[in-house]
Amino acid sequence: MYPGPTSPVNRLHKSVSSVRSSGSRQWTQHGQNTEGETESFCQLKARLCGATMKKVLEVILLLLLLVVTHAKGTRYSPPGKPALTRCRSPEKETFTCWWEPGSDGGLPTTYALYYRKESSDTVFECPDYRTAGENSCFFNKNDTSIWVNYNITVVATNALGRTFSDPVDIDVVYIVKPNPPEQVAVTVMEDKGWPFIRVSWEPPHKADTRSGWITLIYEIRVKLEEENDWEMHLAGQQKMFNIFSLRSGGKYLVQVRCKPDHGYWSEWSPSSYVKVPDYFHREKSVWILITVFCAFIFLILTWLLHMNSRSLKHFLLPPVPGPKIKGFDKQLLKNGKSEEVFSALVATDFPPKSSNYEDLLVEYLEVYIPEEQELMLEKSMDLDVGCLKCEGSASDSDSGRGSCDSHTLLMHKCDGVKEEEERQAKEARRHQKDWKEEASTYAHVDVSPDMSSGRVKTWPSVFSPLPRYTSNQQGSLEMAKQHYLSDSLFPTSSTSSYHTQPGHGTTEAHGPGYWECGLSNKQPHLLHPQAQAQRQLQARSDDNISSIGRKQTPAGLHSPARRSTEYVEVERVNEEDMVLLQPVSGRCGDVEGYPEMPYGEDYSKVKGVDMDNMLLLQREVREETENCDTSSTVTTTQKPAACIHSAMPVEGEMVLGVNGYVDTATVCTPPTY
Amino acid sequence: MARFWCAVLILACLELSTRVGTAPICSYGQAGCHTPSLADIFDRVIQQSSRMHGISSDLHSEFEQYFFPSKNLIGKPKCHTHGIVTPADKENAQRLGREQLTEVILRLLGAWGDPLLQLYRSMSQDQNQDFNHYSSNKALEISDMVHELRDGVAKMAEKMKLSGVLGNTVGYISPEGLVPSSSFSFYKHGELNSMDHHDLLYCFRRDSNKIKNYLQILKCTTLPGLDC
């Protein structure tokens, strides 16, 4: 079927024989011409020799070649197996097949394509090897049948052999790959101020879509010139497409391709460029949006700042902490209404029950009453003594002698107080009754630094001395309570603003009772066991308390000591050297009936002071005293504390303690007028 | 109680009366029906044929993928419709004319009704293959499509005749007359193996393509428009 190649050996033989024959022919020819020319004979001879030599050389070379090749072995081989790479039809009317040649085996190889149609055994060779280029076969319209199966084979032939490729079955209908669409036109159009691109094209001219023979669908892709991502759009069978959402001023590339219903996509058409004009209002809107957004953010920030201005201020400029009194709201004082202050002070939960006794104890007011001051009511010497004493005891180990330490103050005040005392003593007598009735409670809590001297000797009564002086366990509790009182009224810091104006005190005495059961840190002084020591104490305390400005001193109770405060009267002293106090009340201890106690029931008579510097108070042997059994134990009554009962003289609402003691906390209740 | 039943009755009556009436199917072009235009029919028919071809193509490729991985088959099957002369290129198809073309389409469609049904039955019965359930559904689908398409093309021919586009030479072709039963004996009755399935699918794939193409030619020669 297929013509066999001529073997190279045969050709060689042929060539050799041709050389030989040609040579002999030449020889014969030349021989005939030598008769006329003896000289040319030699020339002829030479020429013949040369020609022959040439021929011989050629033969030798050929022979050599053969020998060499045979000696080397398999340098030449039959061709390698070719392979059909693809077959394509651009319009479903013609088609082309390409193949890939295998190795040629070193020899010139020829390729041939043979095909067989379905249901026919006739083998045809490719009609056209050239049109489609190298290694291709082009089937024209006459040779192309649709819906017919082609069995195609490529054969490679060289001097040494033939090689067949693998057969391939194709049906033209399924190998259609059209040309790219043509006449792609891109224009910019406008739709209500917004531009868009209109792309239009034509099907490839070869594809006959007009008759319906082939149906194409199209696809478009768009991208900005500077970007890498394409935007794909499937256009279906239409030949026109609109693209929206363009960037103002952008340059776009547009490409189109097509595909038959069941086939391959064509190549992309060449890029078409289009520039979208700038449209202002779109950019403007962007700027407007940005501005609005910023303004919004700004508003939110401002509002936030405003809301948090306070905390911010605190953060940046922290406020200076002010003094604090436990349980007392200094705002009340700032307001200037003593009523409220009083009420606050005598509130039931006042003083605050601190569990730390030590704190309270520090605040303890130490009172020292020297012996000379028996008649302290008339005299104001005690202050001096106190002052002196205070000075002397500069080295006291007591921790809280703040005011005592300030010697200068002490001296100064001592003088000042004396004059006042006298005045006040008279006043006190005058207002004795008033005092009783009013049971005024004066907030002469002179805790101010200038009154530190006063504090030295104030509160001769109730308030128990420091626990270390206490031998009585029970008393400590009471003392503690008193401490509370003192604490609350007179904190260690002498900057308490308790100090209300005397004028206020008088008028508002009726207000909530309150007590200046305050103790300052005082060294417990030795109190002379005077019969009237207590009075002295009280007087002193009165003085001190009211020295600052207790003019009114309705304290008719004590003449020298303007009794601006209420005191707890020491009722008795028990066996254990404890001073039992009772509230100053009318019933408790006949005020009038006690000449020794012009202050009436507010004071306790001091019986004496024992070795341990303990103030022994005289027990009031009265029936009425039982009503107001406000006895609080005071072991070391160095600290005369006066518990002021606002309404105590009148009523004896005393809470009788278990041991006959009275909880001064409850004692010092607001007056109930 | 009586009132309740009255209300129910009234409601039922209302519902019946207000029911949206469906437009009657205008199979015979009665008056008052909204009949689709020829262009619409053409579109529908071409859409249907395109879809049919797509499904058959999918089925065939599935078969090839699962059961015949090697593409080189020993021989291409001989289809039972080989008896129907079909134009093999554009010129021949255009030379054929509308009437003959329509006839060819109808013949082809008619020849495939039964074999596809048989294919479906055979595929659904075959329990071995896992994917057969999905494929048998497809087989059923194309089987139905062939029938519908045949009816549609027939209607289209009628309409064309009415509008004078088509000559009267196209007569109603009975399915039995299209393909002699002898040629159908290609396929064994009852049991078809997977080889037969494959052959059938191969043949149908090609024939559905022919149908689609002929319909498109028909449309573009009858109604040249934007799509052509």
From TrEMBL, chain A:
Residues 78-179, 180-279 form the Fibronectin type-III domain. The keyword Cell cycle does not apply. Residues 1-32, 494-564 are annotated as: Disordered. The keyword ATP-binding does not apply. It is a single-pass type I membrane protein. Residues 15-25, 526-539 have a biased composition (Low complexity). It is found in: Membrane. The chain crosses the membrane at residues 286-305. GO terms for cellular component: external side of plasma membrane; receptor complex. This is a receptor for the anterior pituitary hormone prolactin. The box 1 motif is required for JAK interaction and/or activation. Belongs to the type I cytokine receptor family. Type 1 subfamily. This is Prolactin receptor. It comes from Sparus aurata (Gilthead sea bream).
From TrEMBL, chain B:
This is Prolactin 2. GO terms for molecular function: hormone activity. One of its GO terms (biological process) is response to nutrient levels. The keyword Iron does not apply. It comes from the Eukaryota. InterPro entries: 4_helix_cytokine-like_core, Somatotropin/Prolactin, Somatotropin_CS. Residues 1-22 form the signal peptide. It is found in: Secreted. The gene is LOC115586220.
